[in-house]
Design a protein that fits this description.
200 residues, 7 helices, mainly alpha, 0% strand, Four Helix Bundle (Hemerythrin (Met), subunit A)
Length: 200
């Protein structure tokens, strides 16, 4: 029955093939090219990676913009968006750990955090057929992760280390915040079918 909740949400989503989700998937298409560029370990490769990251950020803006403008918000988009964001961040950080000296221990902490949020969101979807709403703290944390990736890509001394430790402070805060949300909000929404967002 756990799978039924997720499958039913996808089947009932009338906007799953709408334009906003096209931009979300496009961001996933950019990902392997970003990873290849980062792994080149050259200035040219870094430049290409930054350009592709900028385009990926643009698609992230466009999917939200058109979802609101065209009234095409969808549960599929709400699930795909954070999933692709986390996949992009985690894989980019793994490449940077190998090529640019980003500490592996930091990368593993970020991956653990993302897995916790994804598994928690999946559990809520399967049990309650709800997509848990993200909060501002989660969005700020994702922005900091992106800044860490950019600063290590172009190698900005001191700034990259400072951003890494600042973002690290956000990890336990988001874990505690979403744990409280799962434990307090979900029992009260047993009969609710409101469309919200998965954590990002």
């Amino acid at each position: 029955m756990k799978r039924a909740g997720l499958i039913q949400i996808i089947r009932e989503d009338e906007n799953k093939f709408a334009l906003p989700n096209f931009f979300t998937v496009l961001r996933l298409i950019f990902l392997p090219f970003i990873l290849i560029a980062l792994n080149m370990q050259t200035r040219g490769g870094d430049f290409i990676a930054i350009i592709l990251m900028a385009l990926a950020c643009l698609t992230d803006f466009l999917d939200g913009y058109y979802a609101r403008k065209l009234n095409k918000k969808s549960n599929v988009g709400r699930m795909l968006d954070p999933l692709i964001d986390k996949l992009s961040v985690d894989t980019a950080m793994l490449v940077l750990a190998s090529a640019k000296g980003l500490p592996y221990w930091y990368v593993f902490i970020v991956i653990f955090r993302d897995l916790f949020l994804l598994l928690g969101g999946t559990f809520v979807i399967s049990k309650r057929r709800l997509v848990v709403e993200s909060n501002k703290l989660g969005k700020w944390t994702s922005t900091l992760f992106a800044l860490v990736i950019i600063s290590f890509t172009i190698n900005i001394p001191y700034v990259k280390t400072a951003l890494m430790y600042i973002s690290l402070l956000m990890v336990p805060l988001t874990l505690v915040g979403y744990t409280k949300k799962y434990s307090h909000d979900i029992p009260r929404k047993k009969s609710t079918r409101r469309e919200n967002r998965i954590p990002s």
